[in-house]
């Protein structure tokens, strides 16, 4: 049942957020005719909007931690816009495994509750102030990580092979 719920939510979020690996183009060229999911720029006229109501974010207090980490890793990689695919997947690689339960919850809310991926990007880059509800140590970590002080070339999401190394 739990697995089903998980698969269901993965399927839904994949449907609703678009898939970055396959969508280097859509964000840039607008090849997609039906937008209106997470990822539209704030100044989009929404002239071609097809409303797909997003299910409201819900805390999942009964979700086992290992599954939560895996879900959040997946959700960090499958964003509505390429910039967040790269940023959040690298952030997840760096921090997800060491986050406490409380931090995982903050991160879950931060990446899944806002209905527009641009908001998350603007908060992380500090182009816009982070709303109070998303402030906290996870957001501080993300802002700091976004500054790229380690001078990483962040051109793509990391290959998942690192997960195998971690499990050894
Ligand atoms: C991060 O820093 C490196 C080295 O200064 C730079 O080449 C790169 O463009 C920076 N940003 C990203 C997003 O990769």
TrEMBL record:
Coiled-coil stretches: none
Report the domain of life of the source organism: Eukaryota
This protein's UniProt keywords:
Chaperone, Mitochondrion, Signal
Name one matching Pfam family.
Sdh5
Quick one: a GO cellular component term? mitochondrial matrix
Q: What subcellular locations does the record give?
A: Mitochondrion matrix
Biological process (GO) annotations held by this record are:
mitochondrial electron transport, succinate to ubiquinone; mitochondrial respiratory chain complex II assembly; negative regulation of canonical Wnt signaling pathway; negative regulation of epithelial to mesenchymal transition; tricarboxylic acid cycle
User: Carries keyword Chaperone?
Assistant: yes
Instruction: Give the signal peptide as a residue range, or say none if absent.
Output: 1-22
* Claim: Chaperone is one of the keywords in the record: yes
What's this chain's function?
A: Plays an essential role in the assembly of succinate dehydrogenase (SDH), an enzyme complex (also referred to as respiratory complex II) that is a component of both the tricarboxylic acid (TCA) cycle and the mitochondrial electron transport chain, and which couples the oxidation of succinate to fumarate with the reduction of ubiquinone (coenzyme Q) to ubiquinol. Required for flavinylation (covalent attachment of FAD) of the flavoprotein subunit SDHA of the SDH catalytic dimer.
Quaternary structure and interacting proteins, as annotated: Interacts with SDHA within the SDH catalytic dimer.
Family named by the database record: Belongs to the SDHAF2 family.
Annotated protein name in UniProt: Succinate dehydrogenase assembly factor 2, mitochondrial
- UniProt organism field: Gouania willdenowi (Blunt-snouted clingfish)
Q: Which gene encodes it?
A: sdhaf2
């Amino acid at each position: 049942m739990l697995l089903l719920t998980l698969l269901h939510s993965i399927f839904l979020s994949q449907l609703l957020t678009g898939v970055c690996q396959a969508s280097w183009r859509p964000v840039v060229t607008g090849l997609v005719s039906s937008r209106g999911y997470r990822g539209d720029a704030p100044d989009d006229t929404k002239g071609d909007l097809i409303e797909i109501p997003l299910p409201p974010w819900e805390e999942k207090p009964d979700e086992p931690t290992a599954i939560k980490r895996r879900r959040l890793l997946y959700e960090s990689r499958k964003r509505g816009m390429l910039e967040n695919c790269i940023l959040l997947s690298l952030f997840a690689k760096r921090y997800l495994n060491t986050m406490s339960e409380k931090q995982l919850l903050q991160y879950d809310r931060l990446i899944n509750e806002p209905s527009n991926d641009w908001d998350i990007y603007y908060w992380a880059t500090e182009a816009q102030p982070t709303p109070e509800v998303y402030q906290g140590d996870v957001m501080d970590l993300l802002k700091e990580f976004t500054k790229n002080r380690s001078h990483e070339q962040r051109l793509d999401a990391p290959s998942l092979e690192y997960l195998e190394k971690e499990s050894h």
